[in-house]
Amino acid sequence: MQYLLEIGLEDMPAHVVTPSLKQLADKTAKYLKEQQLGHGAISTYATPRRLALIIDDVAAKTADISEDLKGPAKKIAQDKDGNWSKAAIGFTRGQGMTVDDIVFKELKGTEYVYLHKETPGKPAADILAGLIDVVKGLTFPTRMHWSNYDFEYIRPVHWIVSLLDDQVVPMQLLDVKAGRRTEGHRFLGQAVDIAKPADYVEALRGQKVIVDPAERKDLITKQINKIATDNNWQIDLDPDLLEEVNNLVEYPTAFAGKFDQKYLEIPEAVLITSMKDNQRYFYARDTAGKMVNVFIGVRNGNAEHLDNVIAGNEKVLTARLEDAAFFYAEDKKHTIADYVDRLKNVSFHVKLGSMAAKMARVQTIAGILAGKFGLNADEAADLQRAASIYKFDLVTGMVGEFAELQGTMAAHYASIMGENAVVAKALGEQYMPVGQGTALPESKVGTLLAMADKLDTLMSFFAVDMIPSGSNDPYALRRGAYGIVRMLTKHGVDMSLTDLQGEIADALADKGEDNGLDYRKNVKAVSDFFQDRVRQELSGQSVRHDIVDAVTANPAANVTAEITAAKVLSDVADEDDFKDKLEALTRVLRITGKNPSTGKVDPALFDNDSEGALYQAVQEVAAADDALQPSADGFARLGKLSDVINAYFDATMIMVDDEAVRNNRLALLNQLAKLINVYGELTTIIAK
């Protein structure tokens, strides 16, 4: 048997369509598995107005179940006179049976109550009707309610198709009852009854709806490629834009429009934003790679009256470009210094002062980072210049109109207003990375500018106790912290974020840039916040949870060291001798964890050869250049100490009465523990 489910709605936002369809398919598969209803492939279909799936090879019913159910022991089920106890009666009632159905069976010398139960399978239609709860349970980023209903959904539901072969499977959502009628294209089609699931795709095609997203996207691609070929253009089929356009139409027809060539004098980024982000158009270049004064759109309809459609789109785009040209001309009449001065009157946050004050803090933070990253004098000067002006484009007319061009316009205006290429590039990279998996800054100066800006934002909001909780993160602090983790991971700088915060707090206080705030009070909270982002990064790399916990246990929050340690431990965790090495090393940590010591070791107090052997081995490991930084070679050197460590503990009592000897032994073990702790809290690792 074959089953069709379609949910018909008012037009959904494009970005919701694909994830909602996947969610519907995944939850349907999970539901059918839980209900033990066998089925074949699940095919998915969607347009802005519908989410649908077809399930092949649906079993006629769930399997019959035959089972023997074990209850209480006979001595509990009956009293000495053979009367049934409440336990026995309750057990049978819970299974829909009576005490007359009880039989006794012996198990390991004890008799128990048993019930033999035959449960017939449920018809497929009964199980499929329950999918309405799956439909109701879909989650969306935004929801709305309509009419007088309290129920909320992404958009109002107008129809439901629910067909098992040629029979309607009853279900209802609010006042909408399932049937076999679906809606065609809003303007080119009409309502149509679906006889059976196999007819669904073609029936809608007849009503000018291409319900298969993959087919629709392929058609759009072919149409645009033909336009490109016919005109000898190069058209960038941005996959995200293509996905969005695909989810805006039911019957796509691509077209090309033009705009006045004078607008090509506007920066490309502005043209692309106007076309791509604002109007959902693709742009084109000639064979030499130069932008052409054309745009490519996709209408939700056929080719009839396409000239009118093109003219209307040209008019809308021209209005946008005219605004952009005006702002661009006006912006160039002022200097960067003019814009920077205006930032004194632009609030960063009511509790944190102006945007100019933020830039002053970022300059201070950038100076500290420049030293830690080893910038030369020219790079450090470029970083300071970039930090002193990097937010100036916020008060330009262009960014006021096209907010998504923040940073991009700063880089462009800087380059035409006399700033050098390094500074201009850094301004363009200040917001990077903008999200998980997105590009990192390419330049070192841009990296440190972006890092300093994010550090200031993070520390400042924590300083006023505006700390994200749950899903609430209005200032995207998690995203900023994760961006810093990714940048540190890329550049491999050995640096404690805990210590760094202290340096920043002192520097801001010394310069009077702290707004009277205590930037030190939440240092641990900020470090823990970073550690959560490191865990996120490592989990994304499929690192074992116990290793993640081990390397992120250090309160110093040294991202580079933690990422490296995780890789080292992951690489050796499956080796045959890893368990033996780990046990020896953690034996040291368990003692030193309870008995820390910073004393010096006096070899004169040794009273057996194992102490001298361990002392010598520790000194050799400590003498390596990378002893205090995690590395594969470093861990290998520690691993080779396992026999020496075991021999030491076999021959040596640590907690002896003689205080001098006891402290000497603890001092030696703590020296070794310091080398081991470079790799994290190894006691949390599970050796297999």
Characterization of the model:
The protein is α+β, with helices and mostly antiparallel strands. It has five domains: 3-61 and 124-205, Alpha-Beta Plaits, CATH 3.30.70; 65-119, no CATH class; 213-320, no CATH class; 337-551; 575-684, Orthogonal Bundle (Isoleucyl-tRNA Synthetase, Domain 1). It is 48% helix and 13% strand. The protein is built from 27 helices and 18 strands. The strands form five sheets. Strands 1, 2, 3, 7, 8, 9 and 10 form a seven-stranded mixed beta sheet that branches. It has a four-stranded antiparallel beta sheet with strand order 13-15-16-14, with helices on both faces. Helix 23 (578-594) packs across helix 27. The mean pLDDT is 95.
